[in-house]
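Predict fold of DUF4870 domain-containing protein; 153 aa.
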Amino acid sequence: MTEQPRPPDDDPTARYQPPGGYPPPPYNPPPGYGYKPPSTAGDERTWILVAHFGGAAGAFFGGTFFGWIAPLVALLARGNTSPYVREEAVKALNFQLLWGIIGLVGSVLICVGVGFFIVGAAWLIATILGVVAGVKAANNEPFNYPLSARFIR
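Predicted 3D structure, encoded as tokens:
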């Protein structure tokens, strides 16, 4: 392969290309593309953790009936000022509401006999997945709750 001679400095129209060509420019996705982790600013991150871990604690100690309170508080406290807090709090609130309703239905079905299993499963699922979501949020990783419904958008 022979090198191209460098053009004289007095010819502004001549273009020099290095041997092998130029490397391709780096790919920068357009703004708004993909997942953007929340900033590590203490206030935003704290409210996101309150939504997830608070939902898990409410489900654990309240028997799935009170798991929705902490995500609702986080949504009302910082949902209007931070889109990240709103997104995570809505995810946690929808999940905890669904499993709270399932636990309530299981409580009604206790007299039939299958309610104990339903309440136990709802309690375990709401607690374990709430903790998993909190750990993922603490590491700035995206997490979408499985077995969830969208009541609130």
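The CA atoms of residues 23 and 135 lie 40 Å apart.
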